[in-house]
Amino acid sequence: MTPKITTIPLQLPFRLGSVNCYLIETASAFILVDTGSSNQRAHLLKELERCGCQPGNLKLLVITHGDFDHTGNAAFLRGRFGASIAMHAGDSGMAERGDMFWNRKKGNALIRFLAPRLFGFTQADRFQPDLLIDEGFDLSEYGLDAKVLSIPGHSRGSIGLLVTSSGPSPDLETVLFCGDLLENTSRPALNTIMDDPDSALASVERLNGSGIKTVYPGHGAAWEWFTLRIDPASKS
Prior knowledge:
By secondary structure, the protein is an alpha/beta fold. The chain has a single domain, classed as 4-Layer Sandwich (Metallo-beta-lactamase, Chain A), CATH 3.60.15.10. Helices cover 22% and strands 25% of the residues. It has six helices and 13 strands. The protein has helices at 41-50, 68-71, 74-81, 89-97, 109-118, 197-207; strands at residues 4-11, 18-25, 30-33, 58-62, 84-87, 131-132, 146-150, 159-166, 172-177, 182-183, 189-190, 214-216, 223-224. The strands form three sheets. It has a six-stranded mixed β-sheet. A five-stranded mixed β-sheet has the order 7-8-9-12-13, with no helix packed on it. A hairpin with a 6-residue loop joins strand 12 and strand 13 (223-224).
């Protein structure tokens, strides 16, 4: 069975845009890539139910990075569905401590104060991952031909999920879930917020040689991959 991908866009608080969750249906189970922020929990549950995802068949939550608009429903979904949470150790402290700047540069003090309140990340939303995943982690035991890529830049522990499946032609299609390394809110580009621009540029260069066909970003629409060339001076 070719995995079925359903995009679930969730509105962010205060009309700050939207964030994507991706539900992947395999022959035996469901995998959810990112979980959105807690303000849209009811809508997320409705969409999961509509797709036939229910307690017992949602096996894994893959978190691309530790920002609260991606981790906000992870602890809740683990409790409701029995799914395991997988993320990179480099960002795990964000979820454990409720601090999006745990492994980042200090940043603006006001933003540090507002972030958990803005996205509604409460004590109950904090969690420790069940699986710490890194470069090369294989998801085949969950029925998905996919491997984890380390793509730091937006955060130290940012990961991508590279999925290979049988497409409509005899060739294999490769798709990438890239978290917030890249976005497509107006056009495909590097995310506007980067903790380490040099690492981000290196991650993009690496992706340029990965044979990707389609990119599914954390924010914005999916697009057919083309080689991205980014001026380092624009991100310095």
